[in-house]
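Continuing from the previous page...

OK, I double-checked the sequence for Transcriptional regulator against my notes and this is the correct one:
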Amino acid sequence: MANIKELDPSSSPRAAYGALLRKHRDEQGFSQGQLGRRMGYSSTHVSSVETARKMPTLHFSRMADTALGTGEKFQNEWRKLRFGILLEDFPDFVQHEGKAVEIRLYEIGIIPGLVQTPEYARCLADSAARRGSITSRQADDRVVVVEDRQKALMRPKPPVMLVVMDESCIRREVGGPEIMGAQLDRLLEFADQPNTVLQIAPFSIGERRTFNLPVTLLTLPDLSVLAYGESQIRGYLERETASVLDLLRDYHQLQAEALPHAASVDLIREVRKAHQ
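Thanks. Re-ran it with the corrected sequence; updated structure tokens here:
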């Protein structure tokens, strides 16, 4: 009889994934080889995932869901693994973001992830690693997450994007003149797209700024609206209609106080001159 390695799902998220895979495989009476053939993987690969020696991929998770008839269970478990370095509710938010037909967002202090250059994103992630907030591997994952989110919006019919940034986003230099200059160029390219509106909320609006934390509002294909907000320690996806409507009202008021698109582009060009 084969020596079956005992699994401790509580030891790590990867171990929890492996234990769940073994549980569903055993319940349906598949050997590792049989499941592997149904999924297009070797029995060794399935074994390595089950025993947490190999990290599952999104493709592996999709094939597991198909082979085991588990809906999107393993895809959702993969997202927990993939985005575990980030905040609560962020995996669900990213999934909805990739399907949204309209994205409204407000950011403070840093350029929003959806329009960050790879170098800007890398600088932020590496800085967090140097401070000890995350590991170097988690820093790599953060950069990949930014890239994946941006790729999800590169579709034949991209979403309408309404972006309001606090003036601090373009004034705060990240990575030195070269990286910041390239990032401001990226913003100008973004502002020139037919599906985008970019506005800067200037310091001069003072107390009329309606948000003190970043917020994103997603309009989904069925025209329902979700809201996602973050603090320093957690993220929260809001689905309750009344709360989302309140945030929509505040967002519209913020847009009214912010500089118009053309004036915002002019301000970015002015700030760009300092990073030659």
